[in-house]
């Protein structure tokens, strides 16, 4: 059955806070609508007690998107036990999927063989798509940690978490040296080069860096250089969460030690390979590297991004290297930064040129230390829905009525998170 959503009184209190903070009844009404309608539209409770979450208008569940869509609900679930049940159900379904195939990024509701069945990779009837993305495995660990901290419930972390965590550690360890150790291959024979891996499905040649290799970005586009830096930053953070859960909940000190060791290696890899000396900005983070000296300076709208570093918890919003990187990303030096008559912001090679992502605008606000900047971006998001009152995947910087995807639940959730944060609410640590 599909969910009834969040408790009305809990939501009403939150919307009142948004109205007071923004002074804008339209923004408050958009938050109320999205928070009330988003989860019931995508979340289905299954007979086994887990929760299946559609990724917007696609009939499959992405590990990343299903967790990212829940972020504003984490802010409010402490006072809503029924909502907690739904969110814990999402986590448990994610963990079950990881046990089936940790390399897959998207799964079917049941083992019906739907999805990209012609891809050359080791498909399962449970798998919709098997594009391996390091961030897909980060989000369930973060969700488990947040739910455990927020609710204190013993049913958040169970044996299925231990099984999935072990599979994640095994995979990330193998992919420290993709060339020598990995059996993962992926090819898709269509006309989009970003949908497949070169070299017969192995991807471009890389050398070990201490970071863990990823075939695809959070955008589902193929990585150019193999080691996605913001993805590894997120992995470092969640490995810290995993160490705590393993030690304090599972009482598995071997698992905790493995997480700690892998985190240290990834951190060292980011420090040695993931930064670049910019001629005017100083030290900045690269988006991708390959271990041979090739580095890519850019950002993509999809999270985790370099812009979202403070959100994932790798560095503070006032960290000097982050601030220098942020300055680069929000400028024409980022090839996917667009500026037009209606908006300026970060887009993606996943969508047409000159298209800005509401997700990136929300992240820009959520990582800002300025309340005025958050207010400005909320108003910009309010005014660029193309008359629909809903967030889209992207919109044209000169004409918001030109957009991709009529309805994109992840973007709606990010708008709500920005508004709730501006109102003084936050995801509990």
Account of the protein in words:
One of its GO terms (molecular function) is hydrolase activity. Keywords: Hydrolase. It holds the Pfam family Glyco_hydro_125. This is Glycoside hydrolase family 125 protein. InterPro entries: 6-hairpin_glycosidase_sf, 6hp_glycosidase-like_sf, GH125. Helices cover 45% and strands 10% of the residues. With 429 residues, the chain is mainly alpha-helical. The protein has a single domain, classed as Glycosyltransferase (Alpha/alpha barrel), CATH 1.50.10.10. The strands form six sheets. The chain has a three-stranded antiparallel β-sheet with strand order 3-4-5. A three-stranded antiparallel β-sheet has the order 6-9-10. A hairpin with a 3-residue loop joins β7 and β8. The longest helix is centred in the middle third of the chain and has 21 residues. It is globular. The two termini are 31 Å apart.
How far apart the termini lie comes to: 31 Å
Please give the share of residues in helix. Answer: 40-55%
In CATH, the topology is named Glycosyltransferase
Total helix count?
A: 16
Q: Strand-residue fraction?
A: 5-15%
Strand line-up of the largest beta sheet: 3-4-5
InterPro entries: 6-hairpin_glycosidase_sf, 6hp_glycosidase-like_sf, GH125
Protein name: Glycoside hydrolase family 125 protein
Pfam families: Glyco_hydro_125
GO molecular function: hydrolase activity
